[in-house]
Amino acid sequence: MKTFLLSLLAAALCLHPADSLKCYTCESAIELKNSKCLIETNCTSEAMYCMTTHAIAHEETAINKRCAAECTSRTVVAEELTVSDSCCQTDLCNFNGDEKEAGERKRKEVEVSAAVSVRIGVLTLVIAVGFFGSLLSLEL
Question: Which terms in the GO cellular component ontology are assigned (predicted)?
Answer without folding.
Answer: plasma membrane
